Amino acid sequence: MNFNITLLPGDGIGPEVVAEAVRVLDVIASKYNHTFKFIERLMGGCSIDKYGSSLTDETLADAQSAHAVLLGAVGGPKWDDPSAKDRPERGLLALRKGLGVFANLRPVKVHPALIDSSPLKPEKLKGVDILVVRELTGGLYFGQPKMREMKDGKERAVDTLEYYDYEIKRVMELAFTLAKGRKKKVTSVDKANVLESSRMWRQIATQIGKENQDIELEHMLVDTASMRLITGPVFMDVVVTENMFGDILTDEASVLAGSMGMLPSASLGESGVGLPHEARAGLYEPIHGSAPDIAGKQIANPIGTILSSALLLRYSLKLESEAVAIEKAVEQTITDGARTVDIGGKLTTRQMTDEIIKNL
Ligand code: IPM
Ligand code: MG
Q: Which of 11, 190, 247, 342 is catalytic?
């Protein structure tokens, strides 16, 4: 089959890791007789430099018309001026909103051979397999008003935490659907003892829980959840939460896996809506940032991006066997002892990918 994939390598190590995922996808294409047409565009700081905008209308339109989007990372000290009119991160948020990808899936699996790479006690890490489902297009990131002003001679800054019921409902339903194919447990994380939006969140979670009696639903306050992620991660399966809580908890969860460089993510929208095909709108990216300190050195771990490309095959292209093939190859490569610097080895970005390709 023929598929169009928009590549947004972005800034820092983004281009290095995306190039490796493309090599892996090319191998998949020839092994399984597909044609992947890659269209590369600028997004983030590099796009500010060239076009004066972190996300141009043309790039967004290309991303919207593709079967899927693979992104590296955006940002860096060069574009960090707090008074700047545009920022690389604004482009990323506009892309998420523009693609309608309201659910961000961040699987956190601990490979047995990497247990020692984590600062946590090995006995806490055995068997950890969590899927965080983070709401991605609502909450504090997008709520209006969002502004700064002078009021009564004092400077004031405002962000708004706003949710509509349908925004919570659709991400909650997806979390329950995903739990059906796993250990059948959903932990819904909120701050219902303080926040009105969280009280609505909990009410909707309870309602959807009643409609899905086969799934165990547990409510957890976000402060408790941040502790439980470290003290008892093995008791968590699907964790569903609002945008900001999910941002914070997934960085914490990445420590379980030994390195941020290992973790992929998939951001999904409605099934089929506005797309030239049946699958879901999808944006795929590693959870790590642009790591400007190691950019261009060929030492970044490409696994987060390579596993993101597996999620792309699974969710947007509906190529399950091909996705599993990549995941198995990565697992085997780690079992065999291949290591980049972040997980205690010496392999370059390219060499690590070579090892994965050998196992494909
Ligand atoms: C993430 C990142 C982004 C976010 C930043 C870069 C805007 O931290 O994807 O987790 O906060 O969503
Ligand atoms: Mg984050």
A: 247
Residue 342 among the catalytic residues:
no
Question: What confidence tens digit (pLDDT) does each residue in 170-219 have?
Answer: 999 999 999 999 999 999 999 999 999 999 999 999 999 999 999 999 99
Residue 33 phi/psi, 5-degree rounding, is 60, 45
191 is catalytic: yes
| Torsion angles phi and psi, residue 156, rounded to 5 | -135, 140
In this prediction, residue 279 carries a pLDDT of: 57
CATH number (domain holding residue 75): 3.40.718.10
Residue with tokens 């960090």: 80
Contact 140, 243 (CB under 8 A): yes
Atom of ligand 1 nearest to the CA of 136: 12
Domain that holds residue 309: 1-104+260-360
Q: Cα torsion for 94, 242, 198, 224, to the nearest 10°?
A: -150
Last residue of some domain: 257, 286, 313? Answer: 257
Number of domains forming the structure of the chain: 2
Specify the ligand 1 atom closest to the Cα of 247: 10
Nearest 5°: CA angle at 74, between 38 and 56?
65
Q: Give yes or no: 116 in active site.
A: no
pLDDT at residue 302 is higher than 90: yes
Are both 174 and 243 inside the same structural domain?
yes
Pocket test for ligand 1, best of 89, 90, 137, 283 (most atoms within 8 A of CB): 89
Coil, helix or strand at residue 187 = strand
pLDDT in tens, 13-27: 999 999 999 999 999
State whether 245 and 328 are in the same domain.
Answer: no
For ligand 1, atom 2, name the residue with the nearest CA.
247
Residues 208 and 251 in one domain: yes
In the prediction, which pLDDT does 280 show?
66
Which pLDDT score is estimated for 275?
43
Tens-place pLDDT, residues 29-52: 999 999 999 999 999 999 999 999
Q: Is residue 333 a part of any domain in this protein?
A: yes
- Report pLDDT for 272: 52
CB 99 less than 6 A from any atom of ligand 1 = no
